[in-house]
Amino acid sequence: MTATTPPQPSLGTRTGRLITQDDLQFRDLNGDGELNPYEDWRLDPETRAVDLVHRMTPEEKAGLMVIGSHHPGYSSFLPHAEEGLVLNPEDVWRDANPITSQPYPEPVLVTSSTDNAINARHQRFLICRDNLGPGDLATWTNAVQEMAENSRLGIPVVFASNPRNHVALVPQFGVNESAGVFSEWPNELGLAALDDPALMETFGSEIAREWRAGGLHKLYGYMADVASEPRWSRFNGTFGEDVELVTSYIGSVVRGMQGRKLSHTSVACTIKHFPGGGVRLDGHDPHFEWGQTNEYPTQGALERYHLPPFQAACVAGASSIMPYYAKPVNTSAAQLDEQFWHGPTTQFAEVAFAYNKVFLEDLLRRRLGHGGYVNSDSGVIDAMVWGVEGLTKPERFAAAIQAGTDIFSDMSDPTELIRAIEQGLLSDAELNQACTRLLTEIFQLGLFENPYVDVDAAAAVIGAKEVAALGEQAQRRSVTLLRSSGLLPLNPAREVKVYAFVTGRTRIGDVQVKLEEAITRTWAGAHLVGSPEEAELALVWARPEIALFEDDREGVALSVDPRDNGVDVDRVREIEKTVPTLLVVNFTNPWLLGEIEPEAAAVVGSFEIHPDNLLRSLAGEDGGPAGRLPMSLPASVEKIGQSPRDVPGKYCGDDYPYRDRDGNVYAQGYGLRL
């Protein structure tokens, strides 16, 4: 070995096909008995990717360029699930989008059998949505990798997932599918409440270890969207309103998860939703036709508020970027330098960002310096096709690829992409460029050397005591004290009659049970009673929620009034008038507090937290609540209506935020200490 030769990596193989050359070992991925450049780990990833691309058929390239949901054979997501069956034996077709319920014009393949995914459709990017235990996850990903190793070229699989490391008292498909397996941290707003970029880097590196132990390699996240419309249902997945904080957090989490460069210990990040999804008309989301536009009423808002986090992602080396469904519209105020205009008198091409060459090639790649690939959001070919409705599916594939999109999310069927190739809509060079970018990531992640994980080690790493403790501490510290009184800190030893009441939506009965059980476990002096009249203290947990696929409807105004989002406001006020009440408000959006705050004895904010950790924080553990509001709470419906949708509440003036009964201003960054 020369001084420039990297050290021999550990190789993983189920076929046993190895080549020895120069006293070094390599995997014989295609079984031809020769060391091909793509099999030679001494070469750089891009060189290997270029070599492999030229060995691939058009069908194999098309398969590489779609990423669809995949499941083990026993998954509850499958209509034919069979206990103990590791690999899925059957394709699944549906007549409607499983997330939005939007009807498809014709049945769509939503997930392939494992054999068809690997060998017939040539997929190598798969989305894991099942909430599997560590051993089951590792066993399943290994089984899929073994099938991939036995394929013609032996290309390994990249398993992607939505975030898995946040508290989800009530998991929901497509939102927070996984809970209780990996370490559990507060939601993104809760992490933002800590205003701690160094913690974010630690968070990223720690959870990356968990992911890689289970065979997961790619995160759909995190959201670099600066939340500028309080009624947007996806506000909850952002790091809030402060541009500097969001920018620093995105850079930190990319560095934490990926390292300084991608390697066999990294999880690749797909930062979303370029160029910023927070710019919503009345909060409506572009999953729906009535929310499809990004209109910027404020000159320069895109540059000032929305692009900086994506710049940070590019500087940190984010492996991929996801554009949003929306399309920019020319009723906007000026946003781009004229060099980036679509035409001499037209600022934007009014097509969705996955089809928008100016945004993807000129702005993202050339100006911001993105060096990885572009991963579309789900359904841009067959559902959310804003601005390209008149194109056929093959034409849409071609238009998106020529605009700069490299892979298409939540698609398991490359048939229409293959048709685009057959119809001559795409050149070899265009396909090869996209596939080279995609394969480069797989090489960088070390999967061509060893795609397998240790099943026993997975159980020891995922949710391990040390990382779980970090997540629980972050939960406790994220609690934000808004208004205090003699109720706090709670004294767990003091004998007191407590009335507990949870109100909101999404399986509130389950949360009520969990809160009462937590009080019994952690509050030794508490005696639960059945009514406010019997109590000496009430603990009310208000959990309003804007549900994307239930509340976002055409012609219906979205609201951040807790009353409109499941909270029994009248009952809360009755309790507050009857007994000193500790009001806890769970923030997924900047709620209007004018009805439920004034009569509470004390007010705190939570950001998804296990009830045990909430109570321990309120009792002063780890110093008690340490959070600061990651967004400004609006003073009124009128203030929301008067504010521009492209400017975050933090920057909307001194009269925008809510003032409580004691005169405290609930602006971004506000929070008290015990």
TrEMBL record:
GO MF terms here are: beta-glucosidase activity
Q: What is its EC number?
A: 3.2.1.21
Reaction(s) catalysed (UniProt annotation): Hydrolysis of terminal, non-reducing beta-D-glucosyl residues with release of beta-D-glucose
User: Sorted alphabetically, which InterPro entries does this protein's record hold?
Assistant: Cellulose_Degrad_GH3, GH, Glyco_hydro_3_C_sf, Glyco_hydro_3_N, Glyco_hydro_3_N_sf
Q: Which UniProt keywords apply?
A: Glycosidase, Hydrolase, Signal
| Domain annotation Glycoside hydrolase family 3 N-terminal: ranges | 137-440
A Pfam family annotated for this chain is: Glyco_hydro_3
The answer on whether this UniProt entry bears the keyword Nucleotide-binding reads no
Q: Which GO terms describe its biological process?
A: glucan catabolic process
The answer to whether keyword Hydrolase applies is: yes
The protein's enzyme class: hydrolase
Name the family: Belongs to the glycosyl hydrolase 3 family.
Q: Which PANTHER family match?
A: LYSOSOMAL BETA GLUCOSIDASE (PTHR30620:SF16), PERIPLASMIC BETA-GLUCOSIDASE-RELATED (PTHR30620)
Q: What is the protein name given in its UniProt record?
A: beta-glucosidase
